[in-house]
Amino acid sequence: MIILNITVENVDIIRQSYNTLRIYRATTKTGTYSVIGTTSLAAGVTAYTYFDVSGTTSHWYKTSYYHTGTLAESSLSDPVQGGETEVPTIASYDIEDDIRERLDDTDASDYEFTDTTLSRFIDKAVRRYSDLAPHKMTGTLTTVADEDLYVLPTGCILLTECRYRTTDVNEYGALDDYYPYTFSDWDYRALTQIRAILRHAYDNIGMGVWAQINYPHSWMAGKYVMLYPAPSTGDEDIEIWYTTVHSKVSTDYPTIPSEHRDLIADLAVAHCLRRRAAQIEAGPPDYDVGQARLRYGDRATNLRNQAMTLEASVEAALSKPIIVRG
Q1: Which residue, 250, 184, 238, 183, is CA-closest to 208?
Q2: Local structure of 63: helix, strand or coil
Q3: Domain boundaries defined on the chain
Q4: Low-confidence residues in the chain, pLDDT < 50
């Protein structure tokens, strides 16, 4: 895998003509370059990262600025060879073998945990890891006049910032002016209370405010953001910063750093131990072997305790501050 770190100088000027970075790749420096991906340009953001999961050190890369609406495109950058920015992630390792070693489940002719089951537990581990160390993303919301509720991007865990806070907006109207959905879709008492809280905040700071609304406040699953006051005009792009689950590309998670591979393995092993415990509890509670009486319940409890210890160690590791010394 190749990780490209792209710097965009004078990004706010560039965004007046373009809204996207295009990434091109070729097998040789002077070969034919084809588009392999894009990333959106965000106001004030000069550093961008692109993950080429299938890229190798023999590939060459170019970038351009592109506008998805007008189809305008700049000239391509000078070619850069892959490799200098190659960074290992958990995708670079056979994490399944590591997990099987720790579980003593290495007999390929009679695995206790099938490849499918192990892959599913790794996916669960990544979702738990993402709660503790989520992937950070940027994006935009396009306003609709007099609309105050907007759907957040798919996979959003937490909205960390919204530029609406610093946007000049219209004066607020009556709280009952906004009815974007039908009564069957939303819990109106909860939304009215949230609007009242935001109106109070607006009165204190004199500028637009926002709040993330999760599905418990509605009859529909999903996550939303409420802007207050509602925008008076439409078609304005508002920047947002949010966290999301680390995405799976093929069978890999290229955004998780290699130094956290053991943490993913710990969480996956914990899932496996809990399954062992559940299988034991599904069997007979105990049985006699000569003079010894073995208690299956005790074995299940020990396995669950081991799983809890592993999970607690991961939480502790990810809660420690990272100190960088120059």
Answers
A1: 238
A2: strand
A3: 2-81, 90-134+248-319, 137-244
A4: 176-184, 217-220, 322, 324-326
pLDDT at 216: 52
Q: What is the pLDDT of residues 215-243, one digit of tens each?
A: 654 444 568 888 988 888 889 888 888 88
pLDDT of residue 123: 92
Nearby residues of 63 by Cβ (< 8 Å), 6 or more positions away = 6, 21, 22, 23, 24, 76, 77
pLDDT digits (tens, 9 = 90+) for 194-216: 888 888 888 888 788 888 887 65
- What is the per-residue pLDDT for 285? 61
CA dihedral 89→93→98→99, nearest 10 degrees, is 60
DSSP SS3 for 281: helix
Torsion sign, CA atoms 157, 248, 130, 280: positive
C-alpha closest to that of 126 among 243, 259, 242, 245: 245
Q: Residue 133 has which token pair? A: 């160390």
Within 10 angstroms of residue 73's Cβ, the number of other Cβ atoms is 14
Beta strands in 41-132 (DSSP E): 47-52, 60-66, 80-81
Please name the residues in contact with 51: beta carbons below 8 A apart, sequence gap of 6 or more: 1, 2, 3, 4, 249, 254, 255
pLDDT at residue 218, as a whole number: 44
**CATH code linked to domain 2-81:** 2.60.40
Strand partners, 304: none
Residue 50: closest CA among 60, 41, 38, 62: 38
**Could you tell me the pTM of the whole model?**
0.59
In a 13 Å sphere around the CA of 321, the CA atoms on its Cβ side amount to 3
